[in-house]
UniProtKB/TrEMBL annotation:
One Pfam family recorded for the sequence: HTH_Crp_2
Domain of life: Bacteria
Domain HTH crp-type: 156-230
InterPro entries xref list: cNMP-bd_dom_sf, HTH_CRP, RmlC-like_jellyroll, Tscrpt_reg_HTH_Crp-type_CS, WH-like_DNA-bd_sf, WH_DNA-bd_sf
Keywords, alphabetical: DNA-binding, Transcription, Transcription regulation
GO terms, molecular function: DNA binding; DNA-binding transcription factor activity
Cell cycle keyword on record: no
Name of the protein in its database record: Crp/Fnr family transcriptional regulator
Length: 238
């Protein structure tokens, strides 16, 4: 049975709670082992899709965006990461380098990462039950996110996909204000198109205009304020 969008979000939130405790242990572990950190500026790239990489990166603070480049040259956005997290645990545990599965671009003013030799990282994991638990929850969390993303792309039209994407921003960047829920992060129309598989920016502009006219959201200082969550949920295919 296919879960509804709200069910998928609820599962992801529950997994996030478990992973948060584990990621706190991982950050403390890396700090105790004096793992070096690096800092990157806004709109620079940490890694590029397809290039060999010798390190595993753990986001310490900041906001990043994962994406891949399609064969026609368009960028397809996968996810924002706005909390401490391992950037990628794909591939095997023994190779000294591996091809990066996606681009990682910094979206906040700065982002700080622990930079761990990937073979050493897996040694840490294999020697520490608490880190093994983190890895287990990490993969469960990513699977849940991927199912929700696939559901958003396959089962919704363009408007439904945009509504589902905006709804997903609440958990990442939302905070309550007098007018509704402020998405306290600037998301461009180009990024929305990239997340929703929409090739035309004008289509995004038109649908956002419809949402504003219907009283679903407003825009203040280039940030969304969501005023009608029920409308968004009604547009998302279950």
């Amino acid at each position: 049975m296919i879960r509804s969008a709200s069910d998928s979000n609820l599962l992801t939130k529950e997994l996030n709670k478990m992973v948060l405790t584990d990621i706190e242990y991982l950050l403390s572990y890396l700090e105790a082992h004096h793992v070096p950190t690096i800092q990157k500026k806004r709109h620079t790239y940490l890694t590029y899709h397809g290039l060999a990489e010798h390190y595993t990166y753990v986001l310490k603070d900041g906001i990043i965006k994962n994406s891949i480049i399609l064969q026609d040259g368009r960028e397809f956005n996968l996810s924002y990461i706005a909390k401490p997290d391992v950037i990628s645990l794909l591939r095997d545990e023994v190779s000294r380098s591996t091809d990066q599965p996606f681009n990682v671009r910094i979206e906040s003013e700065y982002a700080t990462f622990y930079q761990v030799n990937r073979v050493d990282f897996w040694k840490y994991v294999n020697q520490t039950p608490e880190l093994q638990n983190y890895i287990k929850n990490y993969y469960r969390k990513k699977l849940s996110e991927n199912i929700f993303r696939l559901q958003r792309m396959v089962m919704n039209g363009k408007k439904g996909a945009i509504c589902a994407f905006i709804y997903s921003l609440i958990d990442l960047f939302g905070r309550k204000v007098a007018d509704g829920i402020l998405i306290d992060f600037v998301v461009t129309n180009d990024d929305i198109a990239g997340f929703c598989g929409i090739s035309s920016r004008s289509s995004v502009n038109r649908m956002l205009k419809e949402l504003r006219e219907d009283g679903v959201l407003t825009v203040k200082n280039h940030k969304f304020i969501i005023q009608d969550i029920s409308y968004l949920l009604d547009q998302i295919a279950n």
